[in-house]
């Protein structure tokens, strides 16, 4: 069984194919975390805990004569405030009498087969997996508060999910000031922290730092998971590489304010706490009320960072993304945003569709500017009705034209936003989040709607569905284009304003759920100024997210690499945009832009009317290549090949089919050099005893110098290589010349 409780030792054993997680109830009813790592054969690992009397570390009253047993030094499973644990806590309360102390002790537990849904929140679906769930109820007998720690074990996938339900079982109201989804204390570890920071247009930049005796906080208080700090962190050995070493992953499945807190305590233990951000948060629990926290997805491997990524990619693809789109080929699309911005009309849009069709593109997406009074970003948000001056035939005319050419059609919405210059705001100014009697903070000259209110969610749903029902839609781009400030709801009393940000997320999730339920054939692509809400919570509703508003290929190398540590390739919206690029002005070859964008959902972000016939033929070729390798890219295993030192010269990555019969290697040179070193790569994930040949080469290099050799030419190379040779010896490529040259090599098992 995946979950076993030993009555004698009071140890819980949670086991997967390649991991083991242990907790123990001590003699005082405290729930201790004793182990998480490779299997140890259900050996009670509490022998690793040493009782040391550390100065100024208090003791429980009943254990006051046993000074080596302290809440401040024991590895606790869910730390609280006020009961002697001075480290980063997981939960905070204010009782009716003003007390803030919470002391949780074991009460009971239950094991069930399968996995329950989370109320009003996204969650990891059980599907047909072998899943067992453990619920451990901790209680504070004085405060009369219960915390149910919920663990679901996906034993074949080496994944454990965690969430907490906090319940007030007293007769008096209490207030939560913090409610994290998980806490874990790792004993005797010296590790690095990997997190993914960034900013708009430069999201999820990989950063690795050595943990020291302090507190690291990775989080967001912007109302979204944010461009700036993704809710996914990794702890790994100092010497861990892509293919070797211990790695722990903690991914919060939530799209709002969050905090991942990592503390190295006085004795060297590492505590990780993850959950909703506590700054500005409070939640009133009356008698018998409960609060449900979002899920955290935990993974462990001793096989390095590529293996950790694979564990997350698999669980997201198979258990989080909407099942309607898991095995359906997604069309190659074109979006008109960078092609036209707000300057379009029905005639120009129909021309763009025709030109895109001529180039072989399979879906057209109409972006911002089709609704209300919307000729720039200063007005119209909230007025989800067609601007008939721009589009006299309505959305239906555009969709019908695309359909007549065999193309699918998609449409842009920004449901959670409103402009002051809109009919919606003029009629309902109280529906915007804003402080009373204070001029609001503006972002992109727009305000945020109060999605905590049911009437607001209902109105937006009804407005959207009228448009959706008017035309044949296959796709919605769901945008969110500012950070949240003035977080004040006119529908909540003063003492409950701390609930607004989380209630906002519950309202957004409710709206997404209703659209998904009633229009299951429509695929939603998440977006928040690109990658500002790229998280597992959004992926529960949308199988892909626009990875970044920065579509420039060389910047995208790092953006997509950072994203790929936790999120599958098939979830990354990636397009070929115009050159010079609109974000940074860089000039990059057409094929290099395509090779980078193929490591994502693949599409185009430009005006096809401006393309030459040769460029349209090139797009046809790129689409043909992508479709040829679609299953390999979207469903194969992804490996990061180059490291940070190598990437001063070139970046390389690889896909391998699950049966190891084919592989696709991509490489982009970012620092072209005279008299260059040989680009050299070791492949990953092949059948070591299989024989492979190069089946096809797709390169951006047109004028190949004679000394460059055959490797850059688009023709089959007859040589064969063993999998062991390619993985242990590697592949030496010929030098690549020119402006940001690239090559994509397809290998096939013979």
Which helices and strands, and how do they pair?
Layout lengths: L2 E4 L4 E5 L4 E6 L5 E7 L53 E4 L10 E9 L17 E10 L4 E10 L4 E10 L5 E13 L4 E9 L2 E9 L4 E6 L11 E6 L9 E6 L5 E7 L5 E7 L6 E3 L4 E3 L3 E6 L3 H15 L13 E3 L1 H4 L5 H13 L4 E4 L27 H11 L3 E6 L3 E2 L4 H5 L19 E2 L5 H16 L5 E4 L21 H19 L4 E4 L9 H4 L4 E3 L6 H12 L7 E2 L1 E3 L12 H8 L5 E3 L7 H16 L1 H6 L1 E4 L9 E7 L5 E8 L10 E2 L9 E9 L20 E3 H7 L1 E2 L9 E8 L1
Parallel strand pairs: 21-22, 21-31, 22-23, 23-26, 26-27, 27-28, 28-29, 30-31
Antiparallel strand pairs: 1-2, 2-3, 3-4, 5-10, 6-7, 7-8, 8-9, 9-19, 9-20, 10-17, 10-18, 11-12, 11-14, 13-16, 14-15, 15-20, 16-17, 24-25, 32-33, 33-34, 34-39, 35-38, 36-37, 36-39
Helix pairs in contact: 6-7, 9-10
What does this structure look like?
The chain is α+β, with helices and mostly antiparallel strands. It contains 13 helices and 39 strands. It folds into three domains: 3-319, alpha-galactosidase from lactobacil brevis (Beta-galactosidase, Chain A, domain 5), CATH 2.70.98; 323-632, Alpha-Beta Barrel (TIM Barrel); 641-749, Golgi alpha-mannosidase II (Immunoglobulin-like, Sandwich), CATH 2.60.40.1180. Strands 6, 7, 8, 9, 11, 12, 14, 15, 19 and 20 form a ten-stranded antiparallel beta sheet that branches. It has a nine-stranded parallel beta sheet with strand order 29-28-27-26-23-22-21-31-30. Strands 5, 10, 13, 16, 17 and 18 form a six-stranded antiparallel beta sheet that branches. Strand 11 (191-199) and strand 12 (202-210) form a beta hairpin. The longest helix is centred in the C-terminal third of the chain and has 19 residues, at 500-518. The protein starts with a strand and ends with a strand. The relative contact order is 0.09. The model has no long low-confidence stretch (mean pLDDT 96).
């Amino acid at each position: 069984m995946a979950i076993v409780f030993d009555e004698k030792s009071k140890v819980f054993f949670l086991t997967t194919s390649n991991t083991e997680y242990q907790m123990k109830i001590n003699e005082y009813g405290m729930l201790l975390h004793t182990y998480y790592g490779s299997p140890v054969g259900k050996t009670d690992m509490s022998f690793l805990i040493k009782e040391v009397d550390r100065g100024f570390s208090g003791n429980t009253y009943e254990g006051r004569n046993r000074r080596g047993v302290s809440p401040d030094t024991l590895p606790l499973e869910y730390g609280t405030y006020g009961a002697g644990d001075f480290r980063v806590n997981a939960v905070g309360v204010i009782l009716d009498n003003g007390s803030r102390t919470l002391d949780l002790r074991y009460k009971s537990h239950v094991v069930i087969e399968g996995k329950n849904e989370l109320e009003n929140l996204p969650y990891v679906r059980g599907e047909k997996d072998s899943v067992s769930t453990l619920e451990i109820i901790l209680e504070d007998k004085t405060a009369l508060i219960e915390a149910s720690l919920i663990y679901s074990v996906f034993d074949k996938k080496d994944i454990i999910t965690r969430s907490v339900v906090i319940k007030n079982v007293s007769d008096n109201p209490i207030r939560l000031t913090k409610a994290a989804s998980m806490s874990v204390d790792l004993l005797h570890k010296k590790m690095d922290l990997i997190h993914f920071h960034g900013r708009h247009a430069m999201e999820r930049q990989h950063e690795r730092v050595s943990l020291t005796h302090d507190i690291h906080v990775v989080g967001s208080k912007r109302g979204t998971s944010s461009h700036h700090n993704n809710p996914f962190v990794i702890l790994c050995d100092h010497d861990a590489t892509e293919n070797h070493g211990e790695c722990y992953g903690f991914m919060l499945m939530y799209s709002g304010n969050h905090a991942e807190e990592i503390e190295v305590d006085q004795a060297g233990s590492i505590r990780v706490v993850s959950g909703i951000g506590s700054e500005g948060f409070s939640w009133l629990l009356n008698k018998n009320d409960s609060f449900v926290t979002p899920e955290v997805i935990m993974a462990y491997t001793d096989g390095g960072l590529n293996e950790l990524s694979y564990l997350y990619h698999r669980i997201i693809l198979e258990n989080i993304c909407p099942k309607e789109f898991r095995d359906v080929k997604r069309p190659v699309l074109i979006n008109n945003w960078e092609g036209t911005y707000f300057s379009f009309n029905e005639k120009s849009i129909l021309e763009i569709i025709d030109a895109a069709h001529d180039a072989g593109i399979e879906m057209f997406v109409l972006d911002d500017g089709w609704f209300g009074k919307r000729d720039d970003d200063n007005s119209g948000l909230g007025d989800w009705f067609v601007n008939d001056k721009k589009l006299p035939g309505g959305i239906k005319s555009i969709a019908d034209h695309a359909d007549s050419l065999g193309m699918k059609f998609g449409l842009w919405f920004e449901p959670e936003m409103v402009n002051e210059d809109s009919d919606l705001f003029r009629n309902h100014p109280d529906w915007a989040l804003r402080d009373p009697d204070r001029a609001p903070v503006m972002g992109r000259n727009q305000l945020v709607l109060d999605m905590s209110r049911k009437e607001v969610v209902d109105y937006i749903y009804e407005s959207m569905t009228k448009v959706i029902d008017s035309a044949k839609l296959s796709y919605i781009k769901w945008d969110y284009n500012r950070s949240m400030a003035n977080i004040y709801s006119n529908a909540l009393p003063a003492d409950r304003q701390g609930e607004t940000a989380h209630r906002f997320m519950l309202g957004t999730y409710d709206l997404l759920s209703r659209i998904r339920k009633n229009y299951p054939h429509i695929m939603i692509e998440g977006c928040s100024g690109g990658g500002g809400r790229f998280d597992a919570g959004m992926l529960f509703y949308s199988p892909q997210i626009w990875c970044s508003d920065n579509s420039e290929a060389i910047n995208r190398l790092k953006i997509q690499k950072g994203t790929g540590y936790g999120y599958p390739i098939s979830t990354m919206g990636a397009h070929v945009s115009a050159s010079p690029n609109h974000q940074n002005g860089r000039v990059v070859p057409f094929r290099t832009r395509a090779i980078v964008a193929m490591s994502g959902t693949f599409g185009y972000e430009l005006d096809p009317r401006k393309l030459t016939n040769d460029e349209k033929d090139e797009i046809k070729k790129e689409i043909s290549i992508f479709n040829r390798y679609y299953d390999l890219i979207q469903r194969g295993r992804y490996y990061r090949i180059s490291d940070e030192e190598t990437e001063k010269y070139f970046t390389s990555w690889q896909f391998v089919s699950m049966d190891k019969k084919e592989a696709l290697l991509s490489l982009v040179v970012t620092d072209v050099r005279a008299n260059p070193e040989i680009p050299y790569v070791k492949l990953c994930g092949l059948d070591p005893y299989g024989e492979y040949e190069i089946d096809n080469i797709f390169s951006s290099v047109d004028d190949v110098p004679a000394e460059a050799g055959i490797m850059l030419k688009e023709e089959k190379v007859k040589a064969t290589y063993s999998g062991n040779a390619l993985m242990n010896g590697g592949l030496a490529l010929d030098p690549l010349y020119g402006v940001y040259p690239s090559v994509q090599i397809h290998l096939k098992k013979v």
